[in-house]
């Protein structure tokens, strides 16, 4: 069996969102399972000195244009959240809480949260995450309780730390057969790697 594709991302990453709209399709095309692994870029930035792209002078104006242009190229909807950058901690916790119970449901929740975030909806607060989860049949009360448990807080930290230990430094970060690809603009390379088995 071929190794699964690992898809690391932060829910507040626009480029991560754009990749998220295509990564499952790529996996299915080449018979690869895709494992979604949300992380907290804030933990990464503490080590790398990075910051959200939109906060960087001059570059911020460029990426705003590039987000929309790239979305048009991929043929996906894209609306910047009204408040950006936003905290993704509750979305990440919700994923890892649900993943411990039902990995496929967690995958569905991640897709839904990402799509909501970049169609103009708030997912920064715990209540907002719970409301979005309820739209796809997830018990919002159980989610709100679950994301406040120490076990879920610890899992969230452990997963981000493990990603950093693997070399993850941005979003999206895609690993195939232990080969890393950083950025949504590497999707063509990802497809080529999957088609050829590497080069």
Quick recap:
The protein is an alpha+beta fold. The chain has 9 helices and 4 strands, in the order E-H-E-H-H-H-H-H-H-H-E-E-H. Helix 1 (14-29) runs parallel beside helix 3 and helix 1 runs parallel beside helix 9 (187-196).
Please explain how this structure is put together:
This protein is α+β, with helices and mostly antiparallel strands and 199 residues long. 54% of the residues lie in helices and 9% in strands. The chain is built from 9 helices and 4 strands, in the order E-H-E-H-H-H-H-H-H-H-E-E-H. The protein has helices at residues 14-29, 41-48, 59-74, 89-99, 103-117, 126-134, 140-146, 150-165, 187-196, and strands spanning 5-9, 34-38, 173-176, 179-182. The protein has a 4-stranded mixed beta sheet with strand order 2-1-3-4, sandwiched between helices. Strand 1, helix 1 (14-29) and strand 2 form a beta-alpha-beta unit. Helix 1 runs parallel beside helix 3 (59-74). The radius of gyration is 16 Å and the shape is globular. It starts with a strand and ends with a helix. The mean pLDDT is 96.
Decide which structural class fits the backbone. alpha+beta
Low-confidence stretches: none
Strands, count = 4
Note the gap between the termini: 20 Å
| Quaternary structure classification | single chain
Number of helices: 9
Order of helices and strands: EHEHHHHHHHEEH
Radius of gyration: 16 Å
Round the mean pLDDT to the nearest integer and report it. 96
The fraction of residues assigned to DSSP E strands is 5-15%
How would a textbook summarize the main sheet? 4 strands, mixed
């Amino acid at each position: 069996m071929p190794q699964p594709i690992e898809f690391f991302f932060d829910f507040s990453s626009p480029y991560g969102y754009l990749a998220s709209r295509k990564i499952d399709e790529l996996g299915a095309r080449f018979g690869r399972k895709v494992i979604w692994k949300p992380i907290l870029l804030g933990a990464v930035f503490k080590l790398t000195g990075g910051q959200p792209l939109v906060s960087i002078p001059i570059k911020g104006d460029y990426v705003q244009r590039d987000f929309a242009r790239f979305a048009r190229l991929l043929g996906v909807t894209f609306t910047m959240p009204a408040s950006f950058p936003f905290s993704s901690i509750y979305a990440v916790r919700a994923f890892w809480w649900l993943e411990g119970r039902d990995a496929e449901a967690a995958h569905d929740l991640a897709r839904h949260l990402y799509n909501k975030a970049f169609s103009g909806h708030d997912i920064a607060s715990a209540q907002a995450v719970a409301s979005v989860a309820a739209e796809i049949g997830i018990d919002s009360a159980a989610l709100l309780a679950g994301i406040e448990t120490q076990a879920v807080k610890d899992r969230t930290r452990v997963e981000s730390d493990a990603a950093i230990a693997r070399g993850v430094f941005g979003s999206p970060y895609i690993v195939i057969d232990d080969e890393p690809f950083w950025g949504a603009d590497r999707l063509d390379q990802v497809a080529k790697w999957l088609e050829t088995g590497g080069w």
